[in-house]
Structure formats: structure tokens, C-alpha cells
Amino acid sequence: QVQLVESGGGLVQAGGSLRLSCAASGTIPRFNTMAWYRQAPGKQRELVASITRVAGGSRTNYADSVKGRFTISRDNAKNTVTLEMNSLNPEDTGVYYCNLSGRLWGQGTLVTVSS
Questions:
Q1: Predicted pLDDT of residue 29
Q2: Greater confidence, 1 or 105?
Q3: Residue 29, CA atoms < 13 Å, CB-side half-sphere
Q4: Contact indicator for 10, 111 with CB cutoff of 8 Å
Q5: Which of 23, 44, 70, 99 is the most exposed place for a label (fewest CB within 10 A)?
Q6: Is a pLDDT exceeding 90 seen at residue 42?
Q7: Nearest 10 degrees: Cα torsion 4, 84, 8, 93
Q8: Backbone angles phi, psi at 91, to 5 degrees
Q9: In whole angstroms, what separates CA 81 from the centre of its chain?
Q10: Using an 8 Å Cβ cutoff, are 8 and 44 in contact?
Q11: Which has more pLDDT, 95 or 29?
Q12: In a 3-state reduction of DSSP, which class is residue 113?
């Protein structure tokens, strides 16, 4: 049974940086999409960034609100996905969830950005 385990959340001041990591245990499909979603208090869960493994490389997608500030990457050998978050602002506060192929969710990790 595949499980996703996230790490790296915490409290940071506005303008700071954080790195989130997600590791998938077990056997996963070779060509898959791993993504980060977030849910702010009182709001719906939204896609932050995704990365799809394709033949010869990967394809990324970002929410407009994080373009130029966040970078998603993956290590296929380790089945991990990382989200580098820079220039954080209070609007980035929320619980961040790792997702595999639109079906499997991690438990979430809290990111709090103070002003």
C-alpha cells in the first residue's frame, strides 16, 4: 500500500523560505504526477504546483500566485517530490498536502507565514 509522508512545514516570517518534501513509499506507477496542494483557513484546497514524469524528463505546472517564487522538483529514484518556497507572504499560509496522481493524499504539513 502506497503512503505519502510530508515534512518541512513550520513558521517563517514574510520574505522567508521553506522547503517541503514528500516521500512515497511502496511501488508507484512510473509515469505519474506528484503535486502539492494547500488549504488556507476557511478556503477550498487549491493546486499549488505539480510535476509529471514524462519520457525523457518532467513537466511542471504552477498556480499563478506562486510562479517565480516556488519550484517543484522530483527524484524518481527515491520517489520524492520537493517544493522550494521563496519570498513567502502571509497569503501562503495553510496546510500543504502532497498528492499522487490525483488520488492519494498525504497527511498535510502546516506552513505559517507571519507578517
A1: 83
A2: 105
A3: 12
A4: yes
A5: 44
A6: yes
A7: -100
A8: -70, -10
A9: 7
A10: no
A11: 95
A12: strand
Cell 505546472 maps to which residue?
61
- Model confidence band, residue 31 (pLDDT cutoffs 50, 70, 90): confident
Q: In the structure grid, which three cell numbers stand for residue 22, read together?
A: 514528500
- Dihedral of the alpha carbons of 46, 49, 54, 58, in degrees to the nearest 10: 180
CA 100 from centre of chain: 10
Q: Which amino acid is at 61?
A: N
DSSP reduced 3-state for 91: helix
User: Do residues 83 and 71 lie in contact, with contact meaning Cβ atoms separated by under 8 Å?
Assistant: yes
* C-beta separation of 112 from 41 below 8 A: no
Confidence band (pLDDT; 50, 70, 90) for 45?
very high
Quote the pLDDT of residue 10: 97
Q: In 3D, which of 31, 32, 40, 23 has the Cα closest to residue 78?
A: 23
Backbone torsions φ then ψ of 92, nearest 5 degrees? -85, -5
Per the structure block, which three cell numbers stand in for 70? 516556488
Query: Is the Cβ–Cβ distance between 24 and 80 less than 8 Å?
Result: yes
Q: Residue 26 has what pLDDT?
A: 85
